[in-house]
Each structure stands twice: as structure tokens, then as C-alpha cells.
Write a structure and sequence with these properties.
seven-stranded parallel β-sheet, alpha/beta, 272 residues, 10 helices, globular, binds NADP nicotinamide-adenine-dinucleotide phosphate, 7 strands
Length: 272
């Protein structure tokens, strides 16, 4: 059996990709289609979803693609997703969609901060809980959380975002251990800066943070390659070194002071 067929046997026949219409999520969708896995793609904008699905379908006519426009920052959204996929065997969940609230914590409304918590924390946890149970019963499958190197310590001016990614990193690494005996692979992918619309729309001038850009395709591929082999992966040597230094070399207070200083300089002044 070739590598793609073996991958499909463990993580097929369907994968659910949140935020599958753009950026890293779209890169995952392409990679999974290449492996013959049918796709359920979720995002808010229906036109962008349809466009992405049509592009992928043209290259991979044998793959089935279902798109569903849904705002995953709404509390009842996962319940409707569960209904939608009730008759599908979801072998892989890629919990990728997220938002950030860059700038001072108090400068964004609390309802916006709550949306972040719902989208970045509650939704991935709910997806992992629901589909994880079904995978446990089938004794195979995978759950891939897209976190960030922001998970590796508190980040002033990205406070809620970094805290949400730290939650995902902790949850995912723990679930990796818990679900391994049931044949379910859990991985946390922690990218550094990626050239997507999320990085463009932020209030941070990344050139002042000295962060190197990577591309979405190689980032998603690193996640797919690490699935089933590791609990956690950080693509790119510089990103890995930054995370390593933040975790093992710098004290927590030095971490906060250093990154607080860097981000304070890089945030658009109106958002401080
Ligand atoms: N870009 C970076 O530098 C970077 C770095 C580290 C980690 N990450 C992480 O990588 C993941 C993907 O980010 P990205 O850079 O690829 O973002 P992106 O290019 O902005 O794409 C985000 C995707 O999520 C969808 N989405 C956004 N809000 C949603 C919502 N409320 N409900 C449903 N779908 C939603 C978007 O479609 P709609 O707008 O149509 O909903 C789109 O498909 C995120 O978890 C992010 O935290 C990104």
C-alpha cells in the first residue's frame, strides 16, 4: 500500500477542516484531497468557500467536497456542524479557524474577546470531544489543533490570543497521551508568522518583531507529516528556537517583559 492510501485508511474517508477556505486551512484541504480524503470545509463566507472547493474539485475530481458557511464563534455552531456530518465518517478533524484581538486587552470590546474564546478554545474543544468519541469507538482517526508559537508564553498586546493558543497546546498534548491507546492521533501544530490574511489584518507591524514569514503550504504539510508521530510540531528552525528559548531559557517574567516591549513598539498606536 502506498503512503497516501495508508494515510487514507487511518484518517479517511472524510476530514473536517475549519477555516478551510483560505490560508493554512485551505493548504490542509489541498494536501488532504491529494491523499484522496473527502472534505467538509467550514468558513463564514460562502462564496470564498465555494471558490476554494471548486478549485480543489477541478484538480481532484474523485474527492467529494461539502462546504458549509458557518460562524464558529457562535455558541450553537458546533451543534449544527454535528448535525450536518451525522452520516459521514469523519476520520480527521483539523481545528484551524481562529481569530486574534491584537492590541490592548481593554481596547477590544468584551464581546469580541468572548468571540475569540468561543472560536479559539470552546469550538476546538467541542469538536475534539464529539469526533474524538466517535474515533475512539472506531479505534482510529486524528485530531489536529492549529495553535501558534504564541502558545509558548504570555504575550502582552496579544494576551487573549496567546492564552487561547496556550490552552490548545496544553489540551492537545494531553489528549495525545490519553487517546493514543485508542488509536486516535492528536497533534498540535504551532506555526510562527505565516503570509496569510490573518497576519495582514493584524494591528501589529511584524517587521518590528523580527519574525520570519513562512508559507501556509509547507506549514500544513509539516502538520500532516507529524500526525501520528509526534504530539506537537513547530515548523521552521527559527520558530522552534524561539519557542525553545521561551520555554526553557528565559524566565517567565523576562519572557513577558521582552515580548511586551517588542509588541508594544509594533502595535498600531490607536490599538494600545
Ligand atoms: N497567519 C499567521 O501568521 C498564523 C501564525 C500562527 C498561527 N496561526 C493560526 O493558523 C490558523 C489559520 O490562520 P490563517 O493565518 O490561515 O488565517 P486566514 O488566512 O485568515 O484564514 C482563516 C480561515 O478561517 C475562517 N474563519 C475565520 N473566522 C471564522 C469563524 N468565526 N467561523 C468560521 N470560520 C472562520 C476564514 O474564512 P471566513 O473569513 O470566510 O470565515 C478562513 O477560511 C489559525 O488558528 C491561526 O491562529 C496563524
Amino acid at each position: 500500500m502506498n503512503k497516501h492510501a495508508a494515510f487514507k485508511q487511518i484518517y479517511g474517508p472524510w476530514a473536517l477542516v475549519t477555516g478551510g477556505s483560505a490560508g493554512i486551512g485551505a493548504a490542509f484541504a489541498w494536501i488532504l484531497a491529494e491523499r484522496g480524503i473527502n472534505l467538509v470545509l467550514i468558513a463564514r463566507n460562502p462564496e470564498r468557500l465555494e471558490e476554494k472547493a471548486a478549485e480543489i474539485q477541478t484538480q481532484h475530481p474523485n474527492v467529494q467536497i461539502i462546504t458549509h458557511a458557518l460562524d464558529l464563534s457562535l455558541s450553537d455552531s458546533v451543534a449544527s456542524l454535528i448535525n450536518l456530518t451525522a452520516d459521514l465518517e469523519i476520520g480527521l478533524v483539523v481545528a484551524n479557524a481562529a481569530m486574534e484581538t491584537s492590541g490592548g486587552f481593554l481596547n477590544s470590546s468584551f464581546s469580541n474577546q468572548q468571540r475569540l474564546i468561543q472560536l479559539n478554545i470552546t469550538t476546538p474543544a467541542h469538536l475534539a470531544h464529539h469526533y474524538g468519541r466517535l474515533m475512539r469507538d472506531r479505534k482510529r482517526g486524528g485530531i489536529l489543533f492549529v495553535a501558534s508559537i504564541a502558545a509558548y508564553g504570555p504575550l502582552p498586546y496579544l494576551a487573549n490570543y496567546a492564552a487561547s493558543k496556550a490552552y490548545l497546546l496544553s489540551l492537545g498534548e494531553a489528549l495525545h497521551y490519553e487517546l493514543k491507546p485508542y488509536g486516535v492521533d492528536v497533534l498540535v501544530l504551532s506555526p510562527g508568522l505565516i503570509d496569510t490574511s490573518m497576519a495582514e489584518q493584524t494591528a501589529i507591524d511584524w517587521s518590528l518583531v523580527y519574525a520570519p514569514y513562512r508559507d501556509a503550504d509547507s506549514t500544513a504539510l509539516a502538520g500532516i507529516r507529524a500526525l501520528g508521530r509526534k504530539s506537537s510540531v513547530i515548523p521552521g528552525t527559527t520558530n522552534w528556537l524561539v519557542a525553545f528559548a521561551r520555554k526553557y531559557l528565559l524566565t517567565r517574567s523576562l519572557n513577558i517583559t521582552l515580548f511586551g516591549h517588542l509588541l508594544r513598539r509594533a502595535i498600531t498606536s490607536s490599538r494600545l
